[in-house]
């Protein structure tokens, strides 16, 4: 449990206070057994194969796992906990190559990855169970939400962890793909609070959660390295192997509905997010070096 590579590292500080149940999103039997026993008042369906680059290579498993998982959770709740308030993790990846900027709850979906396609299927399943079976099922169309708990395979954590290791002399360079790609990056703390607010509403609905401010990969790298007194240009290498075959148009969310209906607003800005991630990765790198 000492290293972040351990599969339970994110839970290490609360494991003693929670009870874990073994199940698989690919198994209706295991999910329904837990829901039948626990009868949850609230359920947050966050499980998915979510690494987009991996999804490009493994479309079959991504589609099968994510769509079946969403369906199984909904079916089990309908059968064994119909009063439960469900949050389904939809995604800005559903918008993909849409021409509308910024994106709202009414924007047409145009996904460019198996992950985005699978999330649309889950989104429609969620809406169908809400309308057909009166389940309290809400979907959060969340744009990129980051924190020091982000997986190392994602570009933000890849940048901050490498910057920290380079600062300590533990690495020499960082390979990235399209530096001009832009994302609407927010802090996971703000977005998780939005998830909870959705399940507290008397009537379920769907909400875009975003900052409304796009930033490029280059800008993220510049700020991360600059915080450590380094020039990113001395260490970042553009690697064509990391370029996506179908890069999306500018994804920027409009959270107006959530701000009005949920009384939600973000409390963390972009600069603070990058600084926090870099500081945590610097601390981690020192501990493990």
How would you concisely characterize the structure shown here?
This protein is 42% helix and 12% strand. The protein has a single domain (41-288), classed as NAD(P)-binding Rossmann-like Domain (Rossmann fold, 3-Layer(aba) Sandwich).
What would your notes on this structure say?
The chain has 289 residues and is an alpha/beta fold. It has a single domain, classed as NAD(P)-binding Rossmann-like Domain (Rossmann fold), CATH 3.40.50.720. Helix content is 42%, strand content 12%. It has helices at residues 28-38, 52-57, 59-80, 114-133, 155-167, 188-199, 217-227, 256-261, 270-288, and strands spanning 42-45, 85-89, 136-142, 145-146, 174-176, 182-183, 186-187, 206-209, 215-216, 236-238. It has a four-stranded parallel sheet with strand order 1-2-3-8, with helices on both faces. Helix 1 packs parallel to helix 3 (59-80), helix 3 (59-80) packs parallel to helix 4 and helix 7 crosses helix 9. The longest helix has 22 residues, at 59-80. The model has no long low-confidence stretch (mean pLDDT 92).
List keywords for this structure.
289 residues, four-stranded parallel beta sheet, Rossmann fold, globular, 9 helices, two-stranded parallel ribbon, alpha/beta
Topology:
Blueprint: H1 28-38, E1 42-45, H2 52-57, H3 59-80, E2 85-89, H4 114-133, E3 136-142, E4 145-146, H5 155-167, E5 174-176, E6 182-183, E7 186-187, H6 188-199, E8 206-209, E9 215-216, H7 217-227, E10 236-238, H8 256-261, H9 270-288
Parallel strand pairs: 1-2, 2-3, 3-8, 4-7, 5-10
Antiparallel strand pairs: 6-9
Helix pairs in contact: 1-3, 3-4, 5-7, 5-9, 7-9
């Amino acid at each position: 449990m000492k290293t972040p590579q351990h599969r339970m590292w994110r839970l290490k500080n609360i494991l003693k206070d929670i009870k874990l149940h073994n199940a698989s999103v690919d198994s209706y039997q295991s999910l329904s057994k837990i829901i039948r026993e626990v009868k949850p008042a609230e359920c947050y369906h966050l499980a998915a194969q979510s690494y987009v680059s991996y999804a490009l290579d493994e479309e079959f498993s991504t589609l099968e796992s994510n769509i079946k998982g969403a369906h199984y959770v909904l079916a089990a709740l309908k059968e064994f906990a119909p009063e439960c308030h469900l949050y389904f993790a939809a995604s800005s990846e559903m918008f993909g190559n849409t021409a509308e900027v910024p994106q709202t709850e009414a924007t047409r979906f145009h996904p460019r990855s198996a992950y985005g396609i699978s999330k649309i299927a889950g989104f429609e399943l969620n809406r169908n169970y809400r309308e057909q079976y009166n389940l309290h099922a809400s979907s959060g169309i969340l744009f990129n939400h980051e924190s020091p708990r982000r997986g190392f395979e994602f570009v933000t954590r890849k940048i901050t962890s490498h910057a920290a290791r380079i600062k300590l002399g533990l690495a020499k360079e960082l390979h990235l793909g399209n530096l001009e790609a832009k994302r609407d990056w927010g802090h996971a703390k703000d977005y998780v609070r939005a998830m909870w607010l959705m399940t507290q509403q008397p009537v379920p609905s769907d909400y875009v959660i975003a900052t409304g401010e796009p930033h490029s990969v280059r800008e993220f790298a510049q700020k991360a390295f600059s915080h450590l007194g380094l020039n990113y240009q001395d260490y970042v290498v553009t690697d064509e192997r990391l370029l996506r075959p179908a890069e999306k148009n500018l994804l920027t969310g409009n959270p107006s509905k959530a701000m009005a209906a949920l009384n939600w607003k973000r409390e963390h800005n972009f600069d603070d997010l990058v600084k926090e991630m870099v500081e945590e990765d610097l601390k981690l790198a020192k501990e493990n070096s």
